[in-house]
Amino acid sequence: MTISKTYDNALDVLKQSFSGSECELWVDEVRNHFIPQPLRILDIGIGTGESIQKRLLQLSWNGYSADLHGLDPNLCVETVTRHVYDDAHLYKTRFEEATFSQTFDVVNASQSIYYMQNIPAMLRKMTQLVQPGGMVTITLWSQHCSLYQLQRTVFGAGATLVTAEQVAEQLVQQHLLRDVKLVSCKGQLNLSRLRASEQGLDAILTIISRKFGDVFLIPQYRAKLEKALLSLPDVAPRINYMLVGQK
Known about the structure:
Layout: H1 5-15, E1 18-19, H2 23-33, E2 38-44, H3 50-60, E3 65-71, H4 77-80, E4 89-91, E5 104-110, H5 119-128, E6 130-141, H6 146-155, H7 164-173, E7 178-190, H8 191-194, H9 198-209, H10 219-229, E8 235-246
Parallel strand pairs: 2-3, 2-5, 3-4, 5-6
Antiparallel strand pairs: 1-7, 6-8, 7-8
Pfam family, one: Methyltransf_23
InterPro entries: SAM-dependent_MTases_sf
Protein name: Methyltransferase domain-containing protein
């Protein structure tokens, strides 16, 4: 779940070539599940706090308030507090080591499961932290996303990261949540813009490597990426799924 400055910078570069956002989808799911009320929300991998703040702002427009708890192993409190409420509860820790004395209405993990060592155990922990009647939301890339396909090509099938489809299957098989569904967020990735610059190539490598370190510094991976990009169109599909399940 490590989110370094290098990763943040790479994500900023990629966002310039992204279209599509899960923010509105997440807000709609929360609104469909809860009447307007105060909600206790746990955000796993809060990063800079910008993403969850956009979601909470939209909820506030519809009569909801939030008691926000956010954690990240590389948490920068000064950065996060520029985006989230002053009274947010922030924890500089990995989810694996985090302990809580309360349960939550919503447990959210957006693009952070990739960094967990024992995903089945962490899925169980998430569901244990949700109070009865609450919900878990998990956003990951789909097996059909161009970034996932690039990751498989560059690093090999043995080093690929988990997909939303795989996590949904685990949740169902372990009977951890009920009414598990996949909500699709389809957008586009402007590869022509990214592959035209060294910065763009570095950004792609950083994002698809996730927890494998600074692989953009290793020439063999850059060469594999450049070759793989030749087989993709200038504008390729970006497909994420948001898993939604109820306790």
